Amino acid sequence: MAATGAESQLQRIIRDLQDAVTELSKEFKEAGEPITDDSTSLHKFSYKLEYLLQFDQKEKATLLGNKKDYWDYFCACLAKVKGANDGIRFVKSISELL
């Protein structure tokens, strides 16, 4: 049975994400130091992970018209974790993410 377009696209996204993890691992082994925010491999991985998390999601909105996405789910889960509120507030304050 042939895979549908969405299934084949999902498989490609997963392969790309695996490649990004392999690249991060290789970078770590070669440098022998932790990966930092300056790493282009880390940026590429983050981009691909976000793309995977948003794959095939429909636009959702609350009753008040605010957009809802996977980040709202993370915030709801992390709000229950003691000490995570500072991190959530920091990320929500970044204007580029709004």
TrEMBL record:
<dbReference type="InterPro" id="IPR037213">
    <property type="entry name" value="Run_dom_sf"/>
</dbReference>
<dbReference type="GO" id="GO:0005770">
    <property type="term" value="C:late endosome"/>
</dbReference>
<dbReference type="GO" id="GO:0005764">
    <property type="term" value="C:lysosome"/>
</dbReference>
<dbReference type="GO" id="GO:1901098">
    <property type="term" value="P:positive regulation of autophagosome maturation"/>
</dbReference>
<dbReference type="GO" id="GO:0005776">
    <property type="term" value="C:autophagosome"/>
</dbReference>
<dbReference type="GO" id="GO:0072383">
    <property type="term" value="P:plus-end-directed vesicle transport along microtubule"/>
</dbReference>
<protein>
    <submittedName>
        <fullName>FYVE and coiled-coil domain autophagy adaptor 1</fullName>
    </submittedName>
</protein>
